[in-house]
Design a protein that fits this description.
Elements: E1 2-4, E2 12-17, E3 23-26, H1 37-44, H2 57-68, H3 70-85, H4 87-114, H5 121-128, H6 134-171, H7 179-197, H8 201-229, H9 235-239, H10 251-263, H11 271-274, H12 282-311, H13 315-325, H14 328-337, H15 340-374, H16 381-384, H17 394-408, H18 410-413, H19 415-422, H20 424-445, E4 449-450, E5 466-467, H21 477-495, H22 512-529
Parallel strand pairs: 4-5
Antiparallel strand pairs: 1-2, 2-3
Length: about 550
């Protein structure tokens, strides 16, 4: 494979295959180049620095906040949980999810400081797993993470399309929200996301900084009119009312089943991890961005869920509106401000941020795909790894768009089938967190990590020579947090396979267990049959 990179230090990448199947790479530069500390860190991890580092702290936080869409997402996820477990159930589910995911991202932050690479979870797994199963666990984790991010990209495009249609129906009730309209809008969102992602890394970084400002100001633009104009429920109704409308045998079981739906609102901040090779001072900035993101978005999401629960006046009307408006919060906005125009403007704020989220999701999903292809884990890897003149993985970006377009045709047949496929998202991403977290716990409890020494020149990082990064939780808090993160991830993963109601109809059934099992079976079977012969974990390029 010959690939010429036009802007990244005039580097030409030439790859040849040795007799033992290892990759032999050589660098060429017209002058003696002094590599930055970030590039030196990446090289010690075995990867060549080919992407431009355009992201700083603020743009990384903006990227993570954009993908998370906490307060925007809670508008969608809180109503189904509200119907199942009541307003108090939604509040406590969010608080539990906030505490739990903060612990998880603190663990992810430690790993991101150890090895800030675009591969993220699967690269860490390969580093920490026992040699006998490192390639297999790395391959499985890579597939789960790659598919999860593709599902996030599709979900975001679908959300934007249906929000647009919901606004049109709200403004013009005679409009027929046809399925083919949804498909065309999904295509338009995908194309727009590709266009923005195909500019330059610097443009994308500035865009993410702008998104952070919009994310914060838009929150107040929606919250203030909602709280000011809407009639309010009593604190007792909001904070003490639990229900069991799902027909479960106990209130406690109903509550546990409802937690993953709300917890999913705070999933996806690891997008900053997959952009690590484009972040300056990545081993410090990425961990900081993860925790700042979860703190900011947790606070905004919690404030929004409280406001929404206080302002829901007609639950039945909100539920019925989902048939035509797609999302009950549109009707809640209209009922609150007593103005269709005002409600459309408020939803418009959510729409703009959802479009921005699609752009950010495409950036992260394409980098994850590019990284997996770089390690020869995907079909057509020779094409997917190619970069354009601006050092962007253009083929991975275009492939992400192609997958969205192909999957969007399912909407023409059945939205239930699309929902079933996308239900993979939560289970897949949490599985990658769990595998990485468990291996980190194993290594830290067995003394597998060496202390971080500033400026230490470590040429090779093997599983028996792991070194902490500059960002690390102090002991024993780090180990305690690691244990809690693994327990919480296992907890959410288990309950994510349950439907919100007992004896559900096919439309209400949670198909994630079926889809997840199918992905696992296929990945394992393909690894045994073919992949074990060519996938050897993250390839050491230097």
């Amino acid at each position: 494979m010959d690939l010429t990179i036009g802007s990244k230090n005039s580097i030409e990448l030439r790859v040849a295959s040795g007799n033992n199947g290892d990759m032999l790479l050589s660098d060429y530069s017209g002058n003696n180049r002094q590599y930055s500390k970030d590039d030196a860190t990446l090289r010690r991890l075995g990867k060549r620095p080919l992407l431009n580092r355009s992201f700083g702290f603020m743009s990384s936080v903006g990227l993570s906040c954009s993908v998370l869409l906490s307060w925007e997402g809670i508008l969608v996820t809180s109503v189904p949980t509200f119907l199942s477990v009541g307003p108090a159930g939604v509040i406590w589910a969010f608080l539990i999810g906030w505490v739990g995911i903060t612990s998880v991202y603190a663990t992810i932050a430690e790993l991101a400081s150890v090895a800030p690479t675009a591969g993220g979870q699967y690269h860490w797994v390969a580093m920490m797993a026992p040699e006998s199963c490192a390639n297999f666990l790395s391959y499985l984790t890579a597939w789960l993470t790659t598919l999860a991010w593709q599902a996030i990209a599709i979900t975001t495009s679908y959300s934007v399309a249906t929000i647009i249609q919901g606004i049109v129906v709200l403004a013009n009730p005679s409009y027929d929200a046809a399925a083919w309209h949804t498909v065309l809008i999904m295509w338009a969102v995908a194309v727009f996301s590709v266009i923005v992602n195909s500019t330059t890394g610097r443009v994308l970084a500035k865009f993410e900084g702008l998104v952070l400002i919009l994310h914060l100001t838009g929150f107040f633009g929606v919250l203030i009119p909602l709280v000011y104009f809407a009639p309010h429920n009593t604190p007792a109704e909001v904070f003490t009312t639990f229900t069991n409308n799902g027909g479960w045998s106990s209130q406690g079981l109903a509550f546990l089943v409802g937690i993953p739906t709300v917890a999913s609102t705070l999933t996806g901040a690891d997008c900053a991890v997959h952009m690590s090779e484009e972040v300056r001072q990545a081993n410090v900035v990425v961990p900081q961005a993860l925790l700042y993101t979860i703190c900011i978005n947790g606070a905004l999401g919690f404030a929004m869920v409280i406001a929404l629960l206080f302002c829901i006046s007609d639950v039945e009307a909100a539920v019925e509106s989902a048939e035509t408006l797609f999302y009950p919060f549109l009707q809640i906005f209209e009922s609150a401000v007593k103005s269709t125009t005002g409600a459309c403007l408020m939803v418009g704020v959510v729409l703009v941020l959802a479009v921005a989220s699609s752009i950010s999701t495409y950036a992260s999903a394409s980098r994850m795909m590019w990284s997996f292809a770089r390690d020869k884990g995907l079909p057509f890897d020779k094409h997917l790894v190619k970069l354009n003149r601006n050092s962007l993985p253009i083929y991975a970006i275009m492939t992400t768009m192609g997958i969205t377009i192909l999957i969007s045709f399912i909407v023409l047949g059945s939205k239930v089938v699309l929902s079933a496929l996308l239900s993979l998202l939560l289970a897949a991403i949490y599985s990658s967190y769990l595998v990485a977290g468990l291996l980190l716990l194993y290594r830290r409890c067995t003394g597998g990590f060496q202390p971080y020494v500033p400026g230490a020149d470590i040429e090779v990082l093997h599983a028996d020579q792991l070194v902490w990064g500059p960002w690390k939780l102090p002991e024993p808090f780090g180990t305690i947090n690691n244990v809690f993160a693994c327990l919480y991830t296992s907890f959410v993963l288990f309950w994510s396979f349950w439907p919100l109601s007992n004896n559900p109809t096919p439309e209400e059934l949670n198909w994630s267990a079926v889809v997840y099992a199918a992905v696992l079976v296929f990945s394992i079977a393909w690894y045994v049959i073919r992949a074990r012969h060519y996938f050897k974990g993250p390839i050491r390029e230097v």
